[in-house]
Specification:
The complex is a heterodimer of chains A (380) and B (462). Chain A is of the alpha/beta class. In chain A, 53% of the residues lie in helices and 7% in strands. Chain A folds into two domains: 67 residues; 286 residues, SGNH hydrolase (Rossmann fold). Chain B has 462 residues and is mostly helical. In chain B, helix 1 runs antiparallel to helix 2, helix 3 packs antiparallel against helix 4 and helix 14 runs antiparallel to helix 15. Chain B is globular and about 65 Å long. The two termini of chain B are 16 Å apart. Classes of the chains: A alpha/beta (380), B mainly alpha (462).
Chain lengths: 380, 462
Amino acid sequence: MPLRRGWVRSKLISTISGVAFLHTLNNLLQVRQAERAGSESAWRSFLSRFLLTVVLALICIGSLNYFVNPEGLYGTHLVPQILWGARPQKAVMLKSVQPPPEALIMGSSRVMTILPAEVQAATGLRTFNAGVDSAKAEDFYILLRYAVEQAHLRPKLLILGCDVEVFHNHEPVHYYLQQPSLLASFLWHSESQHWRWQTFTKLLSHQETQLAVESLYKSVRRKTTPFSHAEADGHVVDDEWERERAAGRQDLQREIRFTIDRFRPRYDDYTGLSEERLAYFDATLHYAHDHGIQTIVFLTPTRPAVEEGLRQHGYEERKQEVTAALQRISSAWSARFHDFSSAESFGGDPSHFYDGVHYDDTFAPGLIAKMFPVRAHAIQ
Amino acid sequence: MLFNSYVFIFCFLPAVLAGWWVLRATPARLTFLTLASYFFYGWWDWRFLPLMIASTTVDYIAGGKIAASESPQVRKRWLVYSLSFNLAILGFFKYYGFFADSVDRVAGAMGATTLLPTLHLILPIGISFYTFNSMSYTIDIYRGLVRPAKSALHFSAFVALFPHLVAGPIVRYADIEDQFAALKTRLSSTQAALGIYFFAIGLGKKMLIADRLARPAAAFFDGPAQHGLLPACLGVLGYTFQLYFDFSGYSDMAVGLAHLLGIQFPQNFNSPYKAVNISDFWRRWHMSLSTWLRDYLFIPLGGSRGSLGRTALNLGITMFLGGLWHGANWTFVIWGLYHGVLLAAYFVAKRRGWVPGSAVVGRVITFVAVTLGWVFFRAESLGRAVHIFGDLAGLHGLGSAQSFPLTFMVSLPAAAAIAFFCKNTWELELEPRPRYAYALAVMLVASVLLLGGASPFLYFQF
């Protein structure tokens, strides 16, 4: 730990020294420039000042993003990571979890709150929640193959929670899958050649900078308390939200508006179902079928206000297409399909959404009861 | 490759500028620039490079033959070869699908089977621009306005020159000829500053304004029908300003890049939304295309020298073809004809003294007319355009602006204020003051941070 602090201190000192040096140089240029306005040398000073400012600003922004590292991309950890890297962490957990799980829950952050214990109570199978953020169809395929071929698990049951965006035709493969890794090795088309370049460009992106600033801000307020954590069975606890709820600071309407604003651009780009993602989904169910894994597919719930807010952005059309595709592919591989897109469909209480699309763990019993009407040892 | 991409700004551009200014001999520099431009073009799809090289070769040979011959028949024959070749590739790649579809629809309506096969051709990016660049070369040699290129290398570099290759401005060889004849070997600080100024402003226009308006405008035009008056006004206005800031931003960047190579490009936009009449609008909007159409189409058709009716017809034909140049779709045909009618109406009104004397009234009428025209330009189909006009007429109720995010609601009035009241990039006088340097640097850095979510330029599709 002292070694780590020393390293951070030395990096900070070198950054501050660099800034001071460039500031002095800039002052010198300013004096010279004032004397020579209008001449070629004045333009040279103008250019120097411009280039210096650009370079300095880009170095500062790049350094901020590198050291704060809000997405955990660079190996540096000045403050706690704001975005939890679910894929690598769940991959590690799948390999080490004991005793080995017999049932896997997969899906996006929307399934992360499903308690594996609830599934175990209903099925008698030890369950692991392998949900990862923003899961798309390729995530199911990769995680399933990884679980079977790398983690050497022999699951009997696979529960796939699909969002309407699961077959998005313009969202790229998740960043973590573009890195050379065991997970990425299951992708049909390797994206790793772009990884280094994208790592560099992310340093200079608005999104990364915004996350870095947010991360710093939250760290200053909360010191080193984690924003979320995964328990041994993969169930994710959103610590930040729990703290906000305990303090009575939850503003659901604001969260819903935020969700709609965040999802609008996604739906503007979501102009049809991706053929490749449909093929990944088909391959997942095919693989499960060949390995004797019973599969249950369900469409995750969304708050009606969000559906309404996205209606003009093609939400309804995509939902219908996705529902039809999930039904068709599930039926082709003898998998069961449940449309749980509305909370009412499984007896859930809509007030238990904590934003537009995420719900707390009180939803899980209803979902599971609908999936397994005959409880205990339903799947053996 | 896009100007608004990390790879262009951090890799391609520094490498090309370094190579261009390090090399001294003209042939080496032009070879380098041509190859770099081919690389720039091939980054998108290298399979279409031979097409551009073929167009370049045909026009270079034709230009040489026209200049070398005294015989009017020979000169005309080579001009026809050149024009036929360019129009053939443009027609095949850009218009075949539209033509075949239209013929088959008519045939289908008459009960006949499909007459022409559908080929699903990919439109080579920038084909409309580089064919017009090359055609102007042979036409100008035929008219005796320019000398033939000094070498194939000079001509190849002119056609392929990456700053104007894919979306203009449409540069004529006469604009470049003297600059290529005496290439600068040292970039002055003044010209470098101008280059940076145009590039940074152009990138800012694209990233900070046009792209903020892009998604909601696209969602309005491409989303489900039945919107209402309010969203229609916002959607159409959003596209109106998006298109201006997108395309004029690209043109500014092209001018800036040319400056960084020591070359000057003509102005392409001159605050078009400040135009006081429709004729004035076309003198300010996409000026390189307007002047091209004027010099190579409108004037040869007879221009405004004939009767009122003949002039109106010439305007109609010119604008119809101008509309078709933009894209193979009936929406563009109608947009072109709409502008042809507006220009003809203005011409008649001017002759009869019906034009309003107030510049403000003229501006408002012109802006509204142009904005309504963009509905045809942007809509996917005529049916969709008609529906939007219904929205604008209030036939589908007032609607709600709820689906337009805050960034859009802030960017739209800002864009309007800049377009209506501020000086444009060419009118602003850059001075070597520190605050200008800092302002440009901040604009460039802010734009760079947004590159990750950048969208292609709207005029790439043409």
